[in-house]
Design goal:
The chain is of the alpha+beta class and 361 residues long. It folds into two domains: 167 residues, Aminotransferase class 4, branched-chain amino acid transferase, N-terminal domain (D-amino Acid Aminotransferase, Chain A, domain 1, 2-Layer Sandwich); 166 residues, D-amino Acid Aminotransferase, Chain A, domain 2 (Alpha-Beta Barrel). It is 26% helix and 30% strand. The protein has eight helices and 19 strands. Strands 1, 2, 3, 4, 5, 6, 7, 8, 9 and 19 form a ten-stranded mixed β-sheet that branches. It is globular, with a radius of gyration of 21 Å. The structure holds pyridoxal-5'-phosphate. Pyridoxal-5'-phosphate (PLP) binds next to helix 6. It catalyses: L-isoleucine + 2-oxoglutarate = (S)-3-methyl-2-oxopentanoate + L-glutamate; L-leucine + 2-oxoglutarate = 4-methyl-2-oxopentanoate + L-glutamate; L-valine + 2-oxoglutarate = 3-methyl-2-oxobutanoate + L-glutamate. Its EC number is 2.6.1.42. Its cofactor is pyridoxal 5'-phosphate.
Length: 361
Amino acid sequence: MLTFTTNSRTDRIPAEERARVLADPGFGKTMTDHMVRIRWTRDGGWENGDLLPYGPISLDPAASVLHYGQEIFEGLKAYRHEDGSIWSFRPQANAERLQRSARRLALPELPTDDFVESIKVLVDADQDWVPDYGTGETSLYLRPFMIASEAFLGVRPANEATYYVIASPAGAYFSGGIKPVSLWLSTDYARAGDGGTGAAKCGGNYASSLAGQVQAAEYGCDQVVFLDSSTHTYIEELGGMNLFFVYRDGRLVTPQLTGTILEGITRSSILQLGSEMGLTVEERRIPIQEWKDGVASGEIAEVFACGTAAVVTPVGTLKWDGGECTVSTEPGEATMKIRETLLDLQYGKTADTRGWMQRLV
Ligand SMILES: *Cc1c(COP(=O)(O)O)cnc(C)c1O
C-alpha cells in the first residue's frame, strides 16, 4: 500500500470563515484546506502520495489532458454521524468504478485500498469541514480525479498521470423543500454512443452533455434526458443522474446497463433497497413512448432521478418537441421512502446491515 506524506497548510482558512461557509455551503463553491496528490509514471508505477495545501496545480501547456481529454473522476460524500465520527458510502464501489473508467480511458488503475486511503487522509486533515450531524442533508463532497499529465502532443496514452482528491462542503440539494424537477427530452444530442465512453465517468461525457443541458434550460427545464444514440428510442439517463420509474403495480424499473449508461452506485443501491422493500425490480430497455403512455394511462405512478450529489430527485414533467406530460406535481411515496432509507443509512440513523458504510475518521 502507498504511504502519504503530510504537508499541512500553515495558513488554514480561519475558523470564522469556515463557519460562514458551512452555514450555507451550496454545492462545489468552496474547497477545503488540503488536497491529495499521487503521481504515476509508466516505468515507475504509482509513487507515494502527498497531502498538500489546496491550491492551483502547475501543468505544462502540452499536458495531454488539455488536448485530448484523457481524464476521469469520481464523486462521493463524507457524512458526519451523531457521535461525531465520519463515514462514507460504499467507497470501494467508487474505487472499482474509477478502475473501470481508467481502463476505458487508457489511464492507470489505482488500487482500491490506495483510493480509500487517499480519501481518509484528506478527510482526516480537513475533518472540521465535514458539516455537523443534524444540519440537514449536508456532507463533505469528495472529488477524486485523474489526469494525463505528460507533456506530449502525440496521440497515445500518456506515460505520466496524476491523481488528486479535493473536497468541498455540500448543502441540501433542495433548499426550499423537495420539488419535482422538469426534464427536457433531447432529440438533437446524445451523451454517449455504442462503443464510446458512456459507461466511464469521464469529463468528456459531461462536456458532450452541456449543449443538451443549455437547450433544456431554453425550454424552461431543469435537466436534460438522453435517448440511446443508435435508435433514438430507449431512455438512457440524465447528464449526471440515472432514472427510475415506479409503476402502480409495484414494479421499480430502470434502464439496463447497455454500455452507454453510467453505472451509478446510488442506482445499484436502490435496486437492492427496492427489492428489499418488496418492489419488483426490473432492469431493461425502456422505450420513451412507454413513459408518455404510462403517464397518460396512470400505469406509471412515479419517476425519479438518482445520483450521489442529489441522492433521489423526484421528476415531475417531461417536455419534448411538441408536447409534455406530468406524472405528478408532488414527490411520490415510493420515491420518498427510498430517499429516506438511503439518507438514514448514510447519516447512521439506521443500522448498516449491508456493510455499505465505511468509517473514515
Ligand atoms: C456519476 C454519475 C451518475 C451517478 O452515479 P452515482 O454513483 O450514483 O453518484 C449517473 N450518471 C452519470 C452520467 C454520472 O456521471
